[in-house]
Amino acid sequence: MPDSSAPVPRGDEILDQIRGTFAEKGFDGASMQDLARAAGMSVGNFYRYFPSKAAIVEAIVRRDLEGVERDFAAVVSSDDPMARLREILRYRIEVELCEEDAPLWAEITAMAHRNPEIAGICERMETEIRRAFLGIFARVTGQPPAEAEARFAAHAAFLVMLVRAWALDWPQKRAGAVELKSLLLRSIDATLDEVARCEAQGASKARGLPCGA
């Protein structure tokens, strides 16, 4: 975990200050003046950090992706990568996708449908996350990266889809949200269980057995 006592870079501090405004007013509704005001700075100074709204979205995505990369690094270095991955995904669903982040990511996704530049930024993020999942699956199962990709590409994409759907639909306020979250977490566990059954692939391969045999 990062040291919370360390000074926060100015760019990161600005992102923290404007996230709520961006989520509340939306990509089109939040003017650069609104965002500069939320950051407590002049519009001219704000433009020095973020020359466009697309640059803001890219910075938000990049910072969140850096957090994901730290999480995945912890998984790879863990004695039990799959157990650590389950913990991280559960934490992501239950804690990180809170009322502040959920509407923000819903808005960013809505932007992506209207703005090809934003769509490209979001697609690059999802590609990196899928690649990270596949790297973990390759390590856990002992399969070469190319084989792991062929075998688990759909698993990685499905996990990304589940987490994204929880963030975008913001179902936490719905009736039956507890049951829905429980079903979501069981779906994640079932997907990881299917991958985990290939952990003995190294031993099974010698006998010509498929994953899960």
TrEMBL record:
Keywords: DNA-binding, Transcription, Transcription regulation
Entries under PROSITE patterns matching the protein: HTH_TETR_2
Coiled-coil region list: none
Domain HTH tetR-type, residue spans: 8-68
A Pfam family that the UniProt record links to this protein: TetR_N
GO MF, one example: transcription cis-regulatory region binding
SUPFAM superfamilies linked to this entry: Homeodomain-like
Residues of the signal peptide: none
DNA-binding region per UniProt: 31-50
Record-linked PANTHER family: HTH-TYPE TRANSCRIPTIONAL REGULATOR BETI, HTH-TYPE TRANSCRIPTIONAL REGULATOR RUTR
Protein name from the UniProt record: Transcriptional regulator, TetR family
